[in-house]
Amino acid sequence: MAAKTRPKSDTPDVSDRVSRIREGVTAAILEHRLLPGTKLGEDEIGEIYGASRTLVRTALQQLAHEGIVNIEKNRGAFVARPTPADAREVFEARRLIEPTIVDHAVDAVSPPWINRLQQHLTEEREAELRGDARASVRLSGEFHRLIAEMSGHSIYLGFLKELIARSSLIILLYRRHDTPACGTDHHAEIVTAIRKRDKQAARAQMLSHLNEIEAELFLKDPAADELRLADVLGA
Amino acid sequence: MAAKTRPKSDTPDVSDRVSRIREGVTAAILEHRLLPGTKLGEDEIGEIYGASRTLVRTALQQLAHEGIVNIEKNRGAFVARPTPADAREVFEARRLIEPTIVDHAVDAVSPPWINRLQQHLTEEREAELRGDARASVRLSGEFHRLIAEMSGHSIYLGFLKELIARSSLIILLYRRHDTPACGTDHHAEIVTAIRKRDKQAARAQMLSHLNEIEAELFLKDPAADELRLADVLGA
DNA sequence: ACAGGCGAAACTTTATACAATCTACGCCCA
DNA sequence: TGGGCGTAGATTGTATAAAGTTTCGCCTGT
């Protein structure tokens, strides 16, 4: 009965049909199978999931609230296309929140959690080894979500889910082609710091990890009119 | 055309009927006219606003995502009843985010903004003087939102809107009866620091303001079974 | 008198039908 | 030939109706 205190959206209710649609579309976006600007027609999605437009519409509205879908009046829903300004805001927010989250995660460390983290690292390495880019990008985001779940802070978790989803779109749009091969495995280092219960190190590792991700981006300023025009036309 | 870059939910579209319902219910909750646990029937609200249940449902779902309404499957929507644990999370998040927000606000300081802040302080004082508790509690929240708007950081603004709305419910539920009369006007002090462009002071004032608000709360632990039972029955 | 179960009413959930709006294609005219 | 206008098709916004679930009252049996 104690659990009944908050029966809201904590349990995503996998059996719920709206949730299934939402998670399906979310996964497609996070795995970079749906590109920014893609039209998400209601009938189209409804037919895919065997649901009426009512349910599809509900799911799309939730995604719009999470910031990964834009709904334009009388025009429909589209995969969001974050601007460079959005990107800077997202990463600033992550730099603020995630060190605190990992701090809480250290407090919550326990053998089961260590196991989950280790297993996750393994999955990430396997995806990387077999060159599965889609799984890689998805798992990379899920790592951060996992730490937020571990922190037990449901509000931070909710915020971070949003930030992670947007980050995925941002990386897809603005990642430099000349990625420096990312020699070190930051996630493993973060897990190590958590295992050692070393908050200082965990925060530092998380922060430098986020900085490195953002450093790999090329956030062109609105000065370059030509590129912006291409952007707009690309829709 | 530059503004068209983000035509999403930035403009609340006052003419939009869903937004009108959402803002109406939100205002009622923020002004403590709707108490936690109150049933929000779809027919009931629909009749009030002259809208069909379709629109009401959309609005309620948005409010649920903002955390001030709980939707229980096949039972309907209710004004949320934050637990003490929720309350602690909300205020921890505010202590983390709002100092940073006020930091940005100092960067964005300008005569028009100063005017808006001053005018807001006046409104707060007037409401206080005429003993209008409802307006007071609403304006108190709007002050924080105003600073977030001033910061120009749309993501922080979105997060803070959620936190403010939940805070309002929390204060209603857990505020001590023996409030220490709140001698000093923290909001005025924050505005002063912003005018002086003193980030250090602005952050400090904001932080101590939040601490003082939380200190006025009595967040009873789940140990007191009797009180929890009363809580549940109170629904 | 009280516990248990049946049934009806109220409400939410889902689907479908209708109205409004936008997009696109084609035609006409300069 | 190029541009503008108008109509047709498609898509979204809204309302309403059908289906499913819960809740409450009443009735019966012990």
Précis, in short:
Chain A is mostly helical and 235 residues long. Helices cover 66% and strands 4% of the residues of chain A.
Task: Tell me what you see in this structure.
The structure is a homodimer of 235-residue chains. Chain A is mainly alpha-helical and 235 residues long. The first copy, chain A, folds into two domains: 13-79, Winged helix-like DNA-binding domain superfamily/Winged helix DNA-binding domain (Arc Repressor Mutant, subunit A, Orthogonal Bundle); 84-215, GntR ligand-binding domain-like (Four Helix Bundle (Hemerythrin (Met), subunit A), Up-down Bundle). Chain A has ten helices and three strands, in the order H-E-H-H-E-E-H-H-H-H-H-H-H. In chain A, strands 1-3-2 form a three-stranded antiparallel β-sheet. The first copy, chain A, is globular. The relative contact order of chain A is 0.12. The A-B interface holds A 2, 5-9, 13, 58, 61-62, 64-65, 67, 70-73, 83, 86, 89-90, 92-93, 96-97, 100, 153-156, 159, 163 and B 5-9, 13, 58, 61-62, 64-65, 70-73, 80, 83, 86, 89-90, 92-93, 96-97, 100, 153-156, 158-159, 163, 222. The structure holds a DNA duplex (30 and 30 nucleotides).
SSE run of chain A: HEHHEEHHHHHHH
What is the CATH topology assignment of the largest domain in chain A? Answer: Four Helix Bundle (Hemerythrin (Met), subunit A)
**Any guess at the CATH architecture of the largest domain in chain A?**
Up-down Bundle
Structural class of chain A: mainly alpha
Overall tally of domains of chain A: 2
Beta-strand percentage range of chain A? under 5%
CATH class of the largest domain in chain A: Mainly Alpha
